[in-house]
Amino acid sequence: MQDNLIENIKERMTEFSKSQRLIGGFITEHYEKAAYMTASRLGSTVGVSESTVVRFAIEMGYEGYPEMQKALQNYSKTRLTALQRLDITNNRIDSEHVLKSVLMQDIDRIRMTVEMTDEDSFDKAVNSIISAKNIYIFGAMSSNVLARFLDYYFQLIFDNVHFVQAVNTSGIYQQLIRIDKGDVLIAFSFPRYCQSTANAAKYAASCGAQIVAITDSAASPLGQLADHVLLAKSDMASFADSLAAPLSLINAIIVAVGMKKRDKLETTLARLETMWDENGVYNRGA
After folding, report:
1. If 0-12 CB within 10 Å is exposed, 13-18 middle and 19+ buried, where does residue 265 land?
2. Read out DSSP for the chain?
3. Is the entire prediction scored with pTM above 0.85?
4. Is pLDDT at 61 greater than 70 in this prediction?
5. Which of 36, 132, 187, 220 has its CA at a distance of 20 to 30 angstroms from the CA of residue 25?
6. d(CA 209, CA 133)
7. How far apart are CA 150 and CA 230, in angstroms?
8. Average pLDDT over all residues of the chain
């Protein structure tokens, strides 16, 4: 399979037939749309048959159109701007059934996450977190939501958790200034990958800390730096990132850690329940 479809198409433009030039030209100019088109739709858009599109994919070195489309999606997901994401929504979401379309896509992403999950890697990551002297948690942009969710529950389980605020670069390093050997940095990164996350992981690793990466690919900038990589399928729903699968993975981490730290967690929760009752934190209803 070709590593860079767009560059390969550009290099071979002069040797293409007329139909192939139509397909190649559309892909290079509108890769963000082509990545989510069926072979039939791509063909009708440029005025060629579906079979011509399939043959084009094979000519480019792929087994078929689905493989080329996947490569194109991998290429585009780190390059799409928020406006481009919004623009291609109509190609992916049924405007008459938005709720069902988005929920069904999230179900598919969770199913794919189950299939790509390695139980042994998961257990090793959990054990690394439990045995850490200090736990640092960091996620930038939309991944900050995931980091905060994990931090909320880890604060109930551990007394050595440090949430790293996604501020400017110097501020991030300042919060990591004491990270050392025996510590763990749990970092989140999904397309479009934030450079600050990879920089933080690189710094933490240079200080001897272990890196637990929660990302969509071992080949992602964060995945390449990590000691433990936990994969979750992420994609976009319009301009918004779909984080249902990563959140499910985080839930699994919280449950696994909670089971291993049950005694301490039970004591903490019992004290919290008493405090909540005394202060009327929750509405118990009529």
Report:
1. middle
2. --S-HHHHHHHHGGGS-HHHHHHHHHHHH-HHHHTT--HHHHHHHHT--HHHHHHHHHHTT-SSHHHHHHHHHHHHTTT--HHHHHHTHHHHS-TTSHHHHHHHHHHHHHHHHHHH--HHHHHHHHHHHHT-SSEEEEE-TTHHHHHHHHHHHHHHH-S-EEEPP---HHHHHHHTTT--TT-EEEEEE-SSPPHHHHHHHHHHHHTT-EEEEEES-TTSTTGGG-SEEEE---EEETTEEE-HHHHHHHHHHHHHHHHHTHHHHHHHHHHHHHHHHHHT-S----
3. no
4. yes
5. 220
6. 10
7. 14
8. 87
Looking at the 3D structure of the chain, how many domains does it have?
2
- pLDDT, tens digit (0-9, with 9 covering 90-100), for 192-225: 788 999 999 999 999 999 999 999 888 889 999 9
Between residues 17 and 264, which one has the greater pLDDT?
17
Helix 65-76 to helix 50-59 angle (10° resolution) is 70
Q: Evaluate whether 124 touches 230 at the Cβ level (below 8 Å).
A: no
Distance CA 137, CA 147 (A): 6
CB 49, CB 43: distance < 8 Å: yes
Q: Specify which of 123-132, 165-174, 229-238 reaches the highest per-range mean pLDDT.
A: 123-132
Give the pLDDT band of residue 1 (cuts 50, 70, 90).
Answer: very low
- Beta-carbon-side half-sphere exposure of residue 282 (alpha carbons within 13 Å): 7
* Shared domain check, 261 and 142: yes
Given the structure tokens 């999606």, which residue do they identify? 73
Q: Which domain holds residue 38?
A: 5-76
Give yes or no: residues 63 and 140 share one domain: no
Tell me, yes or no, whether 130 and 249 share the same domain.
Answer: yes
Dist. CA 60–CA 199, nearest whole Å: 35
CATH code, domain with 182: 3.40.50.10490
